[in-house]
């Protein structure tokens, strides 16, 4: 081995996925993992430098993206897609119509599945079609009942509700995923061509189907862009008959039960649950179709984040806009009232600041500024604001990060992560 080969070997880094904490169905005991443990993937993906990114689901599922653009997901079974991929929403609509006439959601047709070592497909049946108000109670009841009957050597109860081993999401030939976003019970995936795919729970329109289809167990192409047009308008985004500026979707976000995307031209589009105004449409109606936020028609948006009931976005000139629920001050407006239209944050703490990154937890928010400062506000019961106490804040407050150069922030529903560099 020559010198150059030695350098290549030294510079090679192995990318692995580790997990700690609680994820339903991962262990037979259903107990938390108190230390980081490696995730066991199907054999072709074990080890190696094959992983690009990870994403924790909002309600009991997780995802990982390989370097080749494949998505693997595991956890709560109804959040793990199965069956064939839908490119035509008319077909999805016909399935919903059939479900309505028969009184229940019929199973989606399934493709011939590959073995686990090649990637895994389910049969296509969904676990539960209860409304969201009853789902949590029913799942908890089934867990308790199954747990009491479960013999140590049996895993049938876990198999009914959860997937312990990561499964390959079938996205269709040639589709390479670059980013995923996880909502409470739904998922969006962004391809390298700027297309948005979705699956999971869609009862409030968060899957952009134009309807209230509760469970979609197969990835479908969300109509954020129109590929049937020709010439320069070939990839223009379309919703409710009007064209959006832009050629492709560049960023995606999932809230508890709503979704948001940004086109490359800076147009902000939202869809899903609207009870608290989190879709920014000036009302509290659910948005069943992808819809542009008209009040920002003259604002070019560069980044977006969504919480349980609220949404934040950053314009290209670094201004922060917030809308949706504000029960814990998560909008940062200094008040408790919800906002159904995007409201510019003009807090004195942000004066002359330009935001470059934003992230939302369930009920708290954070931003990073261009000059390397971190601000947080909202719910703080678990100290997730990083301010040294557990007191809620309703305006942006600077977090002390002396000696660190912040690179990225990521909020979980009840925690906040900061990626930073420390000078050596």
Describe this structure in words.
The protein is mostly beta strands and 424 residues long. The chain folds into 2 domains: 14-168, no CATH class; 223-421, Methylamine Dehydrogenase, Chain H (7 Propeller), CATH 2.130.10. 11% of the residues lie in helices and 35% in strands. The protein has helices at residues 3-11, 89-102, 132-149, 156-161, and strands at residues 18-21, 33-38, 51-56, 61-66, 71-76, 162-168, 177-182, 186-191, 196-201, 215-221, 237-239, 242-244, 249-254, 258-263, 268-272, 287-292, 301-306, 310-315, 320-324, 339-344, 355-360, 364-369, 374-378, 393-399, 405-411, 416-421. The longest helix is centred in the first third of the chain and has 18 residues, at 132-149.
CATH superfamily of the largest domain: Regulator of chromosome condensation 1/beta-lactamase-inhibitor protein II
Assign a percent range to the helix content.
10-25%
* Share in β-strands: 35-45%
CATH topology of the largest domain: Methylamine Dehydrogenase, Chain H
Structural class assignment: mainly beta
CATH architecture label of the largest domain: 7 Propeller
DSSP strand tally = 26
Q: From N to C, what is the helix and strand string?
A: HEEEEEHHHEEEEEEEEEEEEEEEEEEEEE
Detail the poorly predicted runs: 7-12, 98-156, 229-242
How many separate structural domains?
Answer: 2
Main pleated-sheet profile: 4 strands, antiparallel
The side-by-side strand order for the widest beta sheet comes to 3-4-5-6
* SS field, number of helical segments: 4
Q: What's the end-to-end separation, in Å?
A: 32 Å
Structural Rg: 22 Å
- The overall pLDDT, averaged over residues, is 76
According to CATH, what is the class of the largest domain?
Answer: Mainly Beta
Q: What gross morphology would you assign?
A: globular
């Amino acid at each position: 081995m020559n010198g150059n080969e030695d350098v290549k070997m030294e510079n090679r880094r192995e990318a692995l996925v580790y997990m700690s904490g609680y994820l339903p169905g991962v262990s037979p005991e259903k107990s938390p993992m108190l230390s980081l443990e490696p995730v066991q993937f199907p054999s072709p993906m074990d080890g190696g430098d094959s992983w690009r990114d990870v994403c924790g689901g909002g309600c009991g599922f997780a995802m990982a993206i390989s370097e080749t653009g494949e998505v693997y997901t595991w956890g709560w079974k109804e959040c793990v897609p199965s069956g064939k991929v839908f490119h035509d929403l008319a077909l999805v609509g016909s399935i919903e119509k059939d479900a309505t006439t028969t009184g229940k959601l019929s199973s989606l047709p399934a493709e011939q599945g590959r073995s686990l070592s090649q990637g895994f497909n389910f049969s296509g049946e969904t676990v539960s079609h209860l409304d969201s108000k009853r789902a949590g109670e029913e799942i908890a009841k089934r867990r308790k009942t199954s747990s009491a009957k479960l013999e140590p050597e049996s895993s049938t109860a876990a198999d009914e509700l959860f997937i312990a081993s990561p499964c390959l999401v079938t996205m269709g030939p040639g589709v390479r995923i670059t980013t995923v976003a996880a909502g409470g019970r739904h998922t969006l995936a962004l391809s390298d061509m700027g297309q948005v795919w979705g699956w999971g729970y869609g009862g409030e329109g968060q899957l952009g189907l134009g309807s209230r289809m509760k469970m979609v167990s197969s990835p479908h192409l969300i109509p954020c862009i129109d590929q049937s047009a020709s010439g320069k308008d070939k990839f223009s985004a379309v919703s409710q008959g009007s064209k959006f500026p832009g050629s492709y979707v560049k960023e995606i976000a999932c809230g508890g039960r709503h979704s948001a995307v940004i086109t490359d031209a800076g147009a902000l589009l939202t869809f899903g649950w609207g009870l608290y105004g989190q879709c920014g449409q000036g009302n509290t109606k659910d948005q069943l179709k992808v819809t542009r936020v008209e009040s920002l028609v003259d604002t070019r948006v560069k980044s977006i984040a969504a919480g349980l009931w609220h949404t934040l976005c950053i314009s290209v000139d670094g201004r922060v806009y917030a809308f949706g629920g504000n029960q814990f001050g998560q909008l940062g407006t200094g008040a408790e009232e919800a906002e159904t239209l995007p409201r510019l944050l003009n807090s004195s703490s942000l004066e002359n600041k330009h935001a470059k990154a934003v992230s939302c937890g369930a009920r708290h928010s954070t931003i990073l500024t261009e000059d390397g400062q971190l601000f947080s506000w909202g719910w703080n019961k678990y100290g997730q604001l990083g301010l040294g106490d557990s007191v809620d804040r309703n305006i942006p407050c600077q977090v002390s990060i002396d000696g660190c150069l912040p690179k990225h922030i990521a909020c979980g529903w009840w925690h906040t992560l900061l990626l930073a560099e420390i000078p050596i």
